[in-house]
Design goal:
The protein has 9 helices and 18 strands. The chain is an alpha/beta fold and about 300 residues long. It has 2 domains: about 5-155 and about 200-300, 4-Layer Sandwich (Metallo-beta-lactamase, Chain A), CATH 3.60.15; about 155-195, no CATH class.
């Protein structure tokens, strides 16, 4: 199954010749979480080789235009392409009026597959197929939420222990399904006897925010952290004023939370591709793990599961 981030746009408030407004599709074992579809997302999806049929969740962090003006196009594409599966829409409950405007921004043959999932309060959790989707509040001039995807913890079978206990063939599947098997001699072998814990994988999506408790809670221990780094440290005061992070702050979060792969995005239009080494350099002073500066239409895999 596929677990990767498809980057659709990486600009902040103003798109540039090389960076579209925001848009991020996290593909996860048949689920497709479309985060913050900004203006132009529908076209960017076509350019990236993904379709409306890949989307099972639309997750909006807040209702500034660069994070939501692509909603009408995506909704209408879901309708036009006759997507048959359920599509859930998560967004701040306080922005219900804006959601309704975006959802019905123009005349089209509507669809009934989209279900509203407004978020409010300190923690909101939704079951989402094989994972749980969690929303937590961030710190921005308007109400904003970040999102996190978590696979449940499991267990990894140990071949040597299976052999030692005489477990083979169909019995292995029974052991995994039932949690124990009874051998011919009447002895019972439990799943714990033949396996070790396997932590579930996770990813977090943190957009427009100052440093706050929600940022750290979302990022704690994730395999993949997609986080805004709108400014470099020389503009730290501006970042704080407008409710944004610097690349250095993104690195601090990743280091403190034990993140495995850090993806920097949501870059101010004042920066060009030539500035990417500066973003990596500032984040790397704080974080000793892998750092990616996102570019439109690239794909970033979720790191392989820990051994």
């Amino acid at each position: 199954m596929t677990r990767e981030l498809v980057v659709l746009g990486t600009a902040s408030a103003v798109p540039t010749r090389h960076r579209n407004h925001n848009g991020y599709l996290l593909m996860w074992d048949g689920q497709g979480f479309l985060f913050d579809p900004g203006e132009g997302t529908q076209r960017q999806m076509t350019m990236a080789g993904v379709s409306a049929h890949d989307v099972t969740w639309i997750c909006v962090t807040h209702f500034h235009g660069d994070h939501c003006l692509g909603v009408p196009g995506v909704v209408q594409r879901i309708a036009r392409d006759k997507v048959g599966h359920a599509v859930q829409a998560a967004y701040p409950a306080s922005g219900e009026e804006y959601w309704r405007r975006l959802r019905h921004a123009a005349v089209f043959a509507d669809t009934s597959v989209i279900t509203r999932r407004p978020v409010a309060g300190d923690v909101t959790r939704f079951p989402a197929g094989p994972v749980t989707l969690t929303a937590r509040p961030l710190s921005h001039p308007v109400e904003s939420y970040g999102y996190r995807v978590d696979e449940p913890d499991g267990r990894r079978m140990v071949p040597g222990e299976l052999t030692r206990h005489g477990i083979a063939g169909p019995m292995i599947g029974e052991l995994q399904r039932e949690g124990s098997v009874t051998l011919d001699d009447g002895s019972v072998v439990s799943l714990e006897d033949c396996s070790v814990p396997r932590p579930g994988q996770s990813a977090a999506f943190v957009m427009d925010t100052r440093l706050c408790d929600g940022v750290y809670a979302l990022a704690e221990g994730v395999d993949l952290l997609v986080i805004e780094s709108t400014f470099l440290s020389e503009e730290a005061a501006l970042a704080a004023e407008y409710g944004h992070l610097t690349a250095a702050q993104a690195g601090q979060v990743a280091q403190a939370c034990g993140v495995r792969r850090l993806v920097l995005t949501h870059f101010s239009e004042r920066y060009s591709f030539a500035d990417e080494p500066r973003f990596i350099g500032e984040a790397a002073k704080e974080f000793d793990g892998e750092i990616v500066t996102a570019r439109d239409l690239t794909r970033v895999p979720v790191p392989r599961r820990r051994p």
